[in-house]
Amino acid sequence: MASSDLIINDRITIFGWELTEQFVLSGGPGGQNVNKVATAVQLFFPLTASPSLSDTVKRNAARIAGRKLSKEGVLMIEANRFRSQERNREDARERLKELILAAAAPPPPRRRKTRPTKGSIERRLKAKTGRGAIKKMRGKPAADE
To answer: How many Cα atoms within 13 Å fall on the side-chain side of residue 125?
Structure first.
């Protein structure tokens, strides 16, 4: 089933022919409608074979996807949160978009090592000696003769 293109951001667009949707019966609330109408959506996207994504984005997305990615490199997102087929379709496409945005995000900056200031060292040691003095006071009093 050909669908419309999925625009991730200004640089990444997934073509409609890459996405495949399959509608299946959904469990959960919905009464008789759930038993009769296939409202849940399974969205398939060939992640490893996609020409729309760079190699680093594919690698990051595969790591983020985890068990949603098959051995053949096809990503499957199942959406059955809502009672209507159309809302589940939008939900599945939105979840795919979020996954690819997370994969395309730049890595966080590396942590820069810092040293504690002289004042903070002094305050910490003073607090330690104060706690030690309080704990010493908890002992039995010395017998004065």
So the answer is: 7
